[in-house]
Amino acid sequence: MSNRLYHLNAEQVASGIKNGDFSAQEYISQILERIEKIDAKINAFIAVDNKAAIEKARSIDSRIHDGDMIGGLAGVAVGIKDNICTKDLKTTCASKMLEGYIPPYDATVVKKLKESDAIIVGKLNLDEFAMGSTTEFSNHGPTRNPWNIDYVAGGSSGGSAASVAALECTVSLGSDTGGSVRCPASFCSVVGLKPTYGYVSRFGLISYSNSLEQIGCIGKTVSDVVMVMNTIAGIDENDHTTKVSGPILTETLRGIPKHKSQNNRNIRVGLLRELIDGIDPAVSKCFYSAIDLFAGSDYKCEDTSLRSVEYALASYYTIAMAEASSNLARYDNIRYGFDLSPEGYEWNTHFTNVRNNFGEEVKRRIIIGSYVLSAGYYGKYYLKAQKARQMIKHEIKSLFEKYDVLVSPTMPILPFKFGERIDDPLRMYQIDIDTVIANLAGIPAISIPIGFSAGLPVGLQIMANEKREETLFKVASSFERIVNIQESPKI
Amino acid sequence: MAGVRIGLEIHCQLTGLQSKLFCSCQGDYRGKRPNTNICPICSGLPGSLPLLNQRAVEFATMISIALGCEVPNTIMFYRKNYFYPDLPKNFQITQYNAYGITSIGIEGILDYGVKSTRIKRIQLEEDPGRLVYDNMDVDTSYTLIDYNRAGVSLVEIVTEPDFIEPKDVRIFLNKITSILEHLGVCDTRLDGSLRCDANVSLGGGRRVEIKNVGSFRDVEKALGYEITRQKTMSLRDIEIKSETRHWDNTRHITKQSRTKEEEEDYRYFPEPDIPIIFLGNDFLSLLKAKMPELPYERKIRFLRDYGLSDHVAQVLIDKKELADFFESAVKIYSSSPNEIANWIVSDLLGFIDDSKKEHGSLFSGLNIEAKHVAELVRMIDENIINRNIAKMILTQMTKTGEMPSYVLDKLNSSIIDSKDTISDTIEEIFRSEKSAVIDAKQNPNVANFLLGKVMQLTGGRADPKLALNLIKSKLAIMNNS
Q: What is the DSSP string of B231-256?
């Protein structure tokens, strides 16, 4: 197996290197080779940092050799979504606006990964400024689904999911504003987590919608995701919206017994009717097969309703676009950005010239966002959207008094072919219906693979109450073991 | 002035803070090379987040308390969105918004002598950067931007339009300045640390906003001009438009703003990166306990502990530097605070250059410290010198910074006390002032006039007591003959 080290998950890599089964340099060279070999087919990476990766691996091996301390993620290859700042490594948000932009600082999550000796291999493709659900809106070209390259990989963290699925890196970081980690995770048959709002620092995450987004992680297993979460989560003095985290499992989940829950009580699972009825039958069939496996063990699965779902999409997009219109205002090419000389132009003209270089979808969201914040409309749209948001939050909280977790398919449809929804923004927005709820309510949500339909991946979404990552991980890990998906794409 | 209503918008930089409002860059940007006092946060780099300076909240709360405002239980920040090159994020983080009150102080009141003004609101916000024009030509082909100032903490104080005379505005502004200095939140002598815009209307008519007034003294002039302008227009039945005008300090007029200041839509919404801040009673009482003494409190203490007159106490507290100087002197020599105060107010103030009163230290150019005045008064109390000599010593001290006893020694060593020398001088004076000598027969006070002439001729070095005695004896001899 030593020439196929890239198949290993993060736990196996970390322990393998620690125990001396193989060296970090061995592992990373296989990873880099793999990227070199297949990335042209899927276009997951915007930039690969070979030199730094090899150097880091060398440092790890040298310290192991000297008997020095190494971090908990030593040797694990991590890809970083290209809207997260990496010092001295260009960060573009897949946009012409930040073409060639090199941040002078590391995001907190990147700093923590480096401190734990993870090896950052490169920056991953996304929809421009994280706005999209298919990675088709990237200035770097779309990312293709490793299971079938004619199909989209999902978005906006398409590169993050595709790279893990295609075994180009062990784990990856993405960002999730309305489903941008879970959607591609589901479409690429990997595990993707959005944590409780405030658990992971957003310092260094290039803002799209600050009250909705969180940095999340993607891996082949729930354990891997937990491992990364334990490293990157925590209060950060550089982000005043971070909160104290509840108990996050510090050991891996290997210790959890297979069939019985810790207490004698069955874990109560609520199935969200509104997110299951009326979706693509190919998805609901796969979903119900999985539910049948869970029910009858420790899990009491029950149909339930989240009525305010009908306001979720409108509320999400109103708020997200409003915040985006303000967060993206700073891109005026004065302090940083692509090469454009202002010579000969006064401020307004130069500004207009510059702003024209956003992609269509970004422009669309900025315009709508400005509109819903404008005088006379603020109350009608933005305030109302926030009220709807409170309503959704409130209803979810009451559901969590009856249920430990809420479950639905991650996506209402299977992955689709390129170009199928790109000309109809509303049709594109609709596929976020299952995922936006968790962002609106600030609760943690995870997508795990549960099988295939017509050769295309299907994911199941589990949501827990705010700060209840421990419950979430226990249930997710248990489900994962039950469905037991083992395949890798043949790429 | 019938129907005149003036309201003020004062921007005060919290120069007392070490760092900016949302980052740890230095709050003091003056004199630094351009774009060297910046960081990812205040230059608006992608991925940066604002980190609220707690001390700024304390300072703003102290100002609110000092101006008699109500302080709410919670405060929050908003984004004011507009595009301008001096605004690194193309939005300003401020407490103000068009939809409701999220200030740190509301509905206060400030007495300034016989009148008072209502304070509408007090708010925290960040300063933008500075646009620099290399030369003042209209045809400059470029503008330079310096972000050193971007993100510095500002407190905005807005009054109700309660003023009816420009001179009241000046008195009010002096009072605010004194309060800010006493609180230690703003060094008002620093250039640009305190700015004031004004709103003027006449007879319930439309408001005109006046911006770009350089100094507080100019505010009075600008208001005077604007009121005259509006009165003239209304006399001629010309409509007064609601607009923004700029004060031209060279021509001393207000003129229509070159830029079109329409009612811009700033698309305010709550700043998502700054959580709601809870103040609460504990915070307020702790703050009140450790707040520096306010001017009016200090005045009460001066009256009570030092027995100063109301007028003298008022002059001292009007400028914190004077009050500090006074208390330092009293600390050194505590027996005659009243005397010390009078020397400062009546004599020392006369040496202070009027033009220095707005920027820089009051005492710049003068070599005098509290210990000089303390020593001087002690010497008077101990009858070592009289007030006349003291005045001479004071003049000398301000130039040289030498202690009074040293100056006195120098004076004494040059004092002429030789009877013969003085007699000779007196003879000379008697010869040249014949009519005075005749008058002296009837009027003994003329002797003082003659003494004055002797002092003049000896360059002030004659011993006055001795000289007067000699003059009187000589006159007596002449009268008897």
A: HHHHHTTPPPP-EEEEEETTTTEEEE
Contact A240 B88 (CB under 8 A): no
Which residue type does A256 have?
Answer: I
Q: Give the span between the Cα atoms of B390 and B388, in whole angstroms.
A: 5
> Which residues, listed in sequence order, are joined to residue A244 by a DSSP beta bridge?
none
Examine residue B48 and say whether the peptide bond preceding it is cis (omega within 30 degrees of 0): no
The gap from C-alpha A485 to its chain's centroid, in whole angstroms, comes to 20
Confidence band (pLDDT; 50, 70, 90) for A252? very low
- A180 catalytic residue (yes or no): yes
- Using CA atoms, how far apart are residues B324 and B311, in angstroms rounded to an integer? 17
Distance (Å, whole) CA A489 – CA A147: 5
Contacts of A270 (CB under 8 A, 6+ apart): A302, A303, A304, A399, A402, A403, A405, A406, A407
Give the integer Cα–Cα distance in Å for B49 and A108: 12
Q: How far apart are CA B178 and CA B414, in angstroms?
A: 44
What confidence score (pLDDT) does residue A260 get?
44
The interface predicted TM-score (ipTM) is 0.93
User: Which of A26, A27, A34, A23 has its CA nearest to residue A9?
Assistant: A27
Query: What is the distance in angstroms between the Cα of A237 and the nearest Cα belonging to chain B?
Result: 8
Rounded Cα distance, B21 and B127, in Å: 9
Residue A371 pLDDT greater than 70, yes or no: yes
Instruction: Determine the pLDDT at residue B139.
Output: 63
Q: Which residue reads 């800010």 in tokens?
A: B180
CA atoms within 13 A on the CB side of B20: 27
B452-462: pLDDT as tens digits: 888 887 777 77
Residue among A210, A329, A335 whose CB faces B83 most closely: A329
Contact residues on chain B for A206, CB-CB shorter than 8 A: 46-47
Of B45, B49, B79, the CB nearest to A326: B79
d(Cα A170, Cα A425) in Å, to the nearest integer? 33
Whole-number pLDDT of residue A258: 42
Alpha helices in A166-241 (DSSP H): 182-187, 222-232
Confidence of residue A1 (pLDDT cuts 50, 70, 90): very low
Among A359, A361, A357, A358, smallest CA distance to A425 is for A361
Residue A2 confidence (pLDDT): 60
For residue A172, what is the enclosing H or E element?
strand A171-176
Q: Determine the pLDDT at residue B2.
A: 66
pLDDT band, very low/low/confident/very high, at B442 (cuts 50, 70, 90): confident
C-beta of residue B263 within 8 angstroms of C-beta of residue A375: no
From CA B35, how far away is CA B29, in angstroms rounded? Answer: 10
Q: If you count residue pairs, one on A and one on B, with CB atoms under 8 Å apart, how many are there?
A: 94
A408 is catalytic: no
Report, as an integer, the average pLDDT of B417-442.
82
- Helical residues (DSSP H) of B131-194, grouped into ranges: 166-183
Does pTM surpass 0.80? yes
Would you call A18 a catalytic residue per the annotation?
Answer: no
Would you say residue B263 has pLDDT above 70? no
Q: How confident is the model at residue A254 (pLDDT cuts 50, 70, 90)?
A: very low
The answer, yes or no, to whether residue B233 has pLDDT greater than 50, is yes
Are residues B298 and B304 in contact, defined by beta-carbon separation less than 8 angstroms?
A: no
Is residue A322 within 8 Å of A373, Cβ to Cβ?
yes
Q: How many CA atoms lie within 13 A of A91 on its CB side?
A: 27
Token digits of residue A361: 């979808």
Question: What proportion of chain A, given as a percentage, has pLDDT over 70?
Answer: 95
- Among A133, A163, A180, A186, the active-site one is A180
* Residue B146 to residue B152: CA distance in whole angstroms: 13
Which residue, A306, A324, A304, is CA-closest to A437? A306
Decide if B117 contacts B172 (C-beta within 8 A). yes
Per-residue pLDDT band for A255 (boundaries 50, 70, 90) equals very low
